[in-house]
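W.,

You were right to be curious about this one. When I first looked at the sequence I had no strong expectations either way, so I just let the prediction run and decided to look at it fresh. Below is the sequence, 96 residues in total, followed by the output.
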Amino acid sequence: MDPDLRRNLVEALKSRRWTHLDAERAAESIAVVYQAGEGEWKVWPSGNAMEPDRYRVARREPLVSVYDSPLEGRARDVAGALNELEGHDSDATGTH
């Protein structure tokens, strides 16, 4: 992940009432697996039987998630921030 995008992601999450530390931690873990690409980020309920109560953020359901959370709102924040930073018109963060 580009350092400017990472910094902007931290700021976008902080604007959604995340603490600086939580935003930094999320951006750090997202940066490890993030790849620029086509399509909007969406929130998906986990299909993993070992973690049924988690929400994943990915462009498409079977793809690797850039962020997982037991809190749907946190996953929506991440998807919305990534869509905003990538310039997608709608935030498309509804759970499918």
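Here's what jumped out at me. The first strand starts at residue 42 and ends at 45. And, maybe more interesting for your project: The chain has one domain: 3-86.

Coffee later to discuss?

I.
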